[in-house]
Design a protein that fits this description.
With 222 residues, the protein is α/β, with parallel strands linked by helices. It has helices spanning 6-21, 25-36, 46-58, 73-79, 95-107, 121-124, 146-156, 182-196; strands at 63-67, 87-92, 114-118, 134-139, 157-166, 200-209, 212-221. InterPro entries: Cation-dep_OMT, SAM-dependent_MTases_sf, SAM_O-MeTrfase.
């Protein structure tokens, strides 16, 4: 039996991606552009991108909010799952990343479905108040602000909307209630909010794979 090592986790992840996800020229090009721009390789794994795609389809989402665009990899996955007239609104703090994501969305043929707003999430989210509610919210930005993002997800999402929060495992450090790591503290605060706030009904799963030991939380707005 294979040992439960990071190398074997990654090998299984690659096998699952090859078997169930496959390769796509536009998505591969988006990742290549991200690497060429020397951006951190913190995009979701292919199997997670496909999960987001399926969640959009399963929830029949028309309007998706993403907090944390990077080079647009996950935005492309979700935009491709939308029906005609659907849209992804994605917020990116770094103008250079936003420009790259727009280019990648255009190359993938989904520029008409992806709107990228530049600025810190906490600053941009209030500007969305009053727009049509969102059906799915994907949170994958600075972990220190997870509670802010969750609060706005609840304000901007319709009842029954799906909320996904990435990177909640933190290589197991999420169980450490004495940590001074602000990212882990932010994740813990966000999970506590999901558990205590009556606007959410949530669970979480830990994951292993090409991104190491991590996890994601999934909630429904009540």
């Amino acid at each position: 039996m294979p040992e439960p090592t990071p190398e074997n986790w990654a090998a299984v992840d690659r096998y699952l991606a090859d078997t169930l996800v496959g390769h796509d020229a536009a998505l591969d090009a988006a990742l290549a552009s991200q690497q060429a721009a020397h951006l951190a390789p913190i995009e979701v794994a292919p199997v997670a991108g496909k999960l987001l795609h399926l969640l959009v389809r399963i929830s029949r989402a028309r309007r998706v909010l993403e907090i944390g665009t990077l080079a647009g990899y996950s935005a492309i996955w979700m935009a491709r799952a939308l029906p005609d007239g659907g849209s992804v609104v994605s917020i990116e703090a770094e103008p250079r990343n936003a420009a790259l994501a727009r280019s990648n969305a255009a190359a993938a043929g989904v520029a008409d479905r992806v709107e990228i707003l530049v600025g810190r999430g906490a600053d941009v989210l209030p500007s969305l108040d009053g727009r049509e509610p969102f059906d799915l919210v994907f949170i994958d930005a600075d972990k220190e602000s997870n509670t802010i993002y969750l609060d706005w997800a609840a304000r901007l999402g319709r009842p029954g909307a799906v909320v996904v929060v990435d990177n909640v495992g933190r290589s197991g450090r999420v169980v450490d209630d004495t940590t001074d790591d602000p990212q882990v503290q932010g994740v813990r605060a966000g999970l506590a909010m999901l558990g205590d706030d009556p606007r959410f009904d949530a669970t979480a799963i830990q994951t292993v794979g090409v991104k190491g030991w991590d996890g994601l939380a999934i909630a429904v707005l009540v």
